[in-house]
Structures are given as structure tokens and as C-alpha cells.
């Protein structure tokens, strides 16, 4: 705690704690503003390109990457702004709001982590049931989501989302076997084991055509057949200690910042009581 020798200048408020909270939140405030800017740019660009952005249900919002960026950026911007101003102006109301928000985030993260570690199969079933049909159906309608799905399928070497694997794509209007499209009974190129030609470096977008008509054993020779949620769960189980270490580091960081905010609140209250007496 910072104490000065001159009685008239004595203060309970530690400059170190005060400006540490300000600096940390100023960085997150800038990051939140960046997320809002990028998200708004992507949202407006998509709106101008398609002329329509569907936002009718909560799933439409969750699956719209640009909107998720704007919402997440807005939350980070508001909370970090409260931390910045609360610390700089020594405002206990803003600091209480800031501490409460961090505590809520911490509890939500802990709840999700416990669900993921204790009930991994239940979590997988819930995700498959709630999101598989909606994500598969939205593919090609949302370019951002399409790029994210293609990236995930290539990186995790999977195809589709649920335990049905590559057959999930039968639920998409372009890849359904009853579709008049040339892609009927196929899967996206990102499901292919060798989508890129090594010599030319070009991507063969037709490599997944007809994959749904093949038995699993035959399809497994040209495309990945397992669903991405199952693959990600298996990957998380293999890297459990690394993920737990990162999660613990984030949790301890949040608790430390909450501790700093509550410490500063107490120091400000002490200083106010000194002024009153």
C-alpha cells in the first residue's frame, strides 16, 4: 500500500494498483474496439454483397461470425471501459460493476469447463443435436461460416459435425442426393484427404463428388468420414493437461484482476472515510 510521509499528501490509494488496473483494461478496451470495427466491417460487407442478413433466431446470431465479433467486442469494450474509468477516477460504483462482470465471466467459464471435462459425451451430444442441422444447412448461404467450416474440416481432418460424419452433408440442399446440382451426393472439398494437387498447388473442388454413394470403407479412401465434434473431443482428451493448464492460467489471471479491483475499492473507501473524519 502506498503511503507518503507528508501528512497532507497521505493516501490509502496505491498508485501501483490503480494504474495496473487502468493499463490492463486499456489494452482490452482497444481490443474490444478492434473486434467491433472488424465485425461491423464484415457485417456491412456481407449485407452489401447479399442484400440480406438473416437474424431471426438466436441460432442465426450465434452462427453469424461478424455479429458474434460485434457482440463480444461490445461486451469487452464496456467492461474494460468501466475498469479504466473506475480505476482512473477512483469510482467505486464502476469498480463494483467491473468486478461483478469479471466474476460472472469466471463462473460461466468454470461451468463450461466442468461440463466439458466431467461430461464430454453429454456435451458432444448436446452440440450435435443443437447445431449440426443448422450449420450444415447454412453452408454456402454464409461465406464466413463456410470458410470457418472448411478450415475446421481441413485442420482436424473431419467431415460433417455429428457422429454420422460425412453423411451429414445429405442435409444440405446442394449436396443432397435429390438436388439437381452437380454436387449432389457429394461433400465439400475440405473433406478430401488430398484436395490440393502437389505439383500444381491447385485445389480440386470436385474431389468429394459422389462420396455419399460410397460405403464407409470406400469413402474413407478419399474423404475423412468422422464428424468434427467427435474429432475435437478426442483431440481435447489427448491434450487434456495442456488445455487444463491454459484454462487454469486464465482463471488465475481473472481472479488476480478481481482481487486488484476489490483491493482498490477498499483503499478508496478507506480514503473516503479518512476525508469524512
UniProtKB/TrEMBL annotation:
**Localization (cell):** Cell junction, Adherens junction; Cell membrane; Cytoplasm; Membrane
Question: Please, one GO biological process term?
Answer: protein-containing complex assembly
Q: What would you give as a GO molecular function for this chain, any one?
A: enzyme binding
* Membrane topology category: Multi-pass membrane protein
Keyword terms, alphabetized: Cell junction, Cell membrane, Cytoplasm, Disulfide bond, Glycoprotein, Membrane, Transmembrane, Transmembrane helix
Give me the segments passing through the membrane. 21-42, 62-85, 97-119, 240-261
By sequence similarity, the record places it as follows: Belongs to the tetraspanin (TM4SF) family.
Protein name per Swiss-Prot or TrEMBL: Tetraspanin
Amino acid at each position: 500500500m502506498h503511503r507518503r510521509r507528508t501528512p497532507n499528501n497521505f493516501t490509502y490509494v496505491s498508485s501501483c494498483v490503480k494504474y495496473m488496473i487502468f493499463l490492463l483494461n486499456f489494452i482490452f478496451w482497444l481490443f474490444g474496439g478492434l473486434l467491433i470495427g472488424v465485425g461491423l466491417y464484415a457485417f456491412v460487407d456481407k449485407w452489401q454483397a447479399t442484400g440480406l442478413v438473416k437474424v431471426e433466431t438466436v441460432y442465426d446470431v450465434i452462427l453469424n461470425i461478424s455479429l458474434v465479433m460485434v457482440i463480444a467486442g461490445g461486451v469487452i469494450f464496456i467492461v474494460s471501459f468501466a475498469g479504466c474509468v473506475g480505476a482512473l477516477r477512483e469510482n467505486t460504483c464502476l469498480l463494483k460493476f467491473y468486478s461483478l462482470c469479471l466474476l460472472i465471466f469466471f463462473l460461466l467459464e468454470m461451468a463450461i469447463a466442468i461440463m466439458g471435462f466431467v461430461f464430454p459425451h453429454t456435451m458432444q451430444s448436446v452440440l450435435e443435436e443443437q447445431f449440426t442441422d443448422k450449420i450444415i444447412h447454412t453452408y454456402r448461404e454464409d461465406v464466413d461460416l463456410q470458410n470457418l467450416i472448411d478450415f475446421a474440416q481441413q485442420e482436424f481432418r473431419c467431415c460433417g459435425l455429428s457422429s454420422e460424419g460425412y453423411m451429414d452433408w445429405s442435409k444440405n440442399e446442394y449436396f443432397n442426393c435429390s438436388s439437381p446440382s452437380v454436387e449432389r451426393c457429394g461433400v465439400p472439398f475440405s473433406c478430401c484427404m488430398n484436395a490440393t494437387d502437389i505439383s500444381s498447388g491447385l485445389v480440386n473442388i470436385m474431389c468429394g463428388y459422389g462420396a455419399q454413394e460410397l460405403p464407409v470403407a470406400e469413402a474413407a479412401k478419399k474423404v475423412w468420414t468422422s464428424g468434427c465434434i467427435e474429432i475435437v473431443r478426442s483431440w481435447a482428451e489427448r491434450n487434456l493437461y495442456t488445455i487444463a493448464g491454459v484454462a487454469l492460467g486464465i482463471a488465475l489471471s481473472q481472479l488476480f484482476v478481481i482481487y486488484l479491483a476489490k483491493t482498490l475499492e477498499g483503499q478508496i473507501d478507506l480514503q473516503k472515510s479518512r476525508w469524512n473524519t
